[in-house]
TrEMBL record:
It comes from Meripilus lineatus. Residues 1-21, 66-93 are annotated as: Disordered. Gene3D superfamilies: Homeodomain-like. This is Resolvase HTH domain-containing protein. Residues 84-93 have a biased composition (Basic and acidic residues). Residues 18-58 form the Resolvase HTH domain. Pfam families: HTH_7.
Amino acid sequence: MRTYPFRRSSKAEGKTFGRPSALTEAQRATVMDQLKSGVAIAQIAREMHTSRQTIMRVRESMSLMEPDFTGIGPDGVPYAMTDWSDRRKSRDA
């Protein structure tokens, strides 16, 4: 437990622990833009000189950060415009 005081003082100074990130924040933003525009994960990984798994982690973090409440459904209708009342009536009939 001799390291505990050292770790506490280091954190107070603002030092970070653990493995460094494979991508900088600017690179992550670039990856997010490319993913949104439909570029393949493997192609992005090659361009960024990193693994596909790293790109998939960025994609996963995007979905956690930005929930899609105004997207287009499988039937081509925006989510906010879907009228569920007629579907409920057909169940009761």
